[in-house]
Amino acid sequence: MSTPTLSGGEEAEIKAALDKLSADDRKLADAQKSCPMSDEPLGSMGIPIKLTLSGEPVFVCCRSCVKRAEADPTGTLKKVAALKAKPAAK
């Protein structure tokens, strides 16, 4: 799956949303990059929501993804691991 190209305005909105996270959470969200449920960039739908699944921190893009992530913690964590393993977009 290719990473969508974002406009300058979209990038600014994402940065503004991510900037509202604590420094530690920002590092985690930057490493994850995208929502494991929707594949949307974290911050594209406002401040990402932090969950703890099986003791691991996970970010989702919005409230509608929370229940889906919690319904399959193992699958969600596998998706997050894959997201973190992807090289950063240039």
Can I get a quick summary?
By secondary structure, this protein is mainly α. The chain is built from four helices and two strands, in the order ααββαα.
How many domains comprise the coordinates?
1
Spans of at least 5 consecutive residues with low confidence: none
Compressed to H and E, one letter per element, the order equals HHEEHH
Overall average pLDDT: 91
Describe this structure in words.
The structure is a single chain. This protein has four helices and two strands, in the order ααββαα. The chain has a two-stranded antiparallel sheet with strand order 1-2. A hairpin with a 2-residue loop joins β1 and β2 (56-60). It has one domain (9-85). The protein is globular, with a radius of gyration of 12 Å. The chain has helices at residues 8-18, 23-32, 63-71, 73-85; strands spanning 49-53, 56-60. The chain is mainly alpha-helical and 90 residues long.
